[in-house]
Amino acid sequence: MSLRGFIKLPILLLSLLLLAMQPAERDRRMAREAFSAGIRKGVINHFEEALDHFSKAIALDSLFAEAYLYRGMAHLELKENKYAYEDFRTALKLDPSNALETYYFLGLSSAAMDDHYSAILYFDGAIAISPEFFHFFHRGQSFLATAHYEDALKDFEVACRMRSDHPELSLYRAMALYHLGRYDEALSALRAIEKVFSSDGVWHYYKGHSLQAKGEEAAAESHLARAVKPAHILRREMAEALEAAAMEGSYDTVALHELGEGYYNVSLEQVHPSGIGVQIVTFSKPDNVQEIGRAYQERYAYPVFIYVSHEGEAVVYKVSVGNFSTRTPALELRSRLRDDGYTDSFIVSYL
Asked: Which residues are CB-neighbours of 271 under 8 A, at least 6 positions away?
């Protein structure tokens, strides 16, 4: 080969290398453009469109940590908490340097799925990096939801020192004081925010019960008539009711454990539902799943389905309610479930 040939060869190889790199660079540029479009949609609260743009960015660049983070935020705004959590986890793995923001959103999504113990740990992580108002406020809410009232009050007190002009924080502080039996302090805190919350059912709930606890039945009566139970109390009562129903009923754990993959009704007969339903909860163990399914069916007056899914060596049991032919009644049921405290319930399409 001539000297000229030796000179041309590396130039040719370099050209081929640059050509091979161009699609990746083009994809990254297009991913950034899609990400920017998602940000613009999110700013104007068009979260479904934002979600589509962020998903496009991820399809173009699967290592785009920011796109996962912001897609998780869009999922969170749409109450799609499980998907939000998964995206935040991925964002943290891809870019641990952004742990402060990611820990915070992992805490929010965990709390939205009623996994408050995990939420507390994530908020702990955020606070360890940079103690900020909302970290303490939301960790206090998770402490309240798990009946750790002293810890909740401590967090609310810290948050109050950071920002004293936050009425919702004052309401949560009053809740913690009430649960600790400090009724005079609770009433004082509730009176201070009366102008803001005078039409709020939760405010009336705590005002009425605080007065009642002090023996002021006449004063409590008008508040209790307008009271709405807070979500953390509703969830606890629902959990206790379901547990009681499961204890009273009979179920065959071995039979449920041995079922093949597919859908079953609450009598453990294999079925093939069609249309759309709402998934409420997923269990990793078969204990009480059948009876809990029966309790859901009785409460909501829709058929309940248990989907047995074999995921590697693990078996999970996904409980869903309803089989609707259109999306509207499914959305109405999902709204009702979320009002009952099942904030992580989501629409599913049956295969």
From this structure: 263, 264, 265, 305
pLDDT score of 75 more than 70: yes
pLDDT of residue 320 exceeding 60, the answer is yes
User: Residues 105, 87: contact at Cβ < 8 Å?
Assistant: no
Residue type, 136: F
- Per residue in 212-248, pLDDT tens? 999 999 999 999 999 888 877 777 776 666 666 555 5
Can you give the CATH number for the domain in which 103 is found? Answer: 1.25.40.10
Position 1 scores a pLDDT of 46
Q: Does any domain span residue 8? A: yes
Distance of CA 151 to the CA centre of its chain: 22
Domain containing 268 equals 233-349
The total domain count for the chain is 2
Say if residues 305 and 260 touch (Cβ distance below 8 Å): no
Domain's final residue, options 149, 165, 181? 165
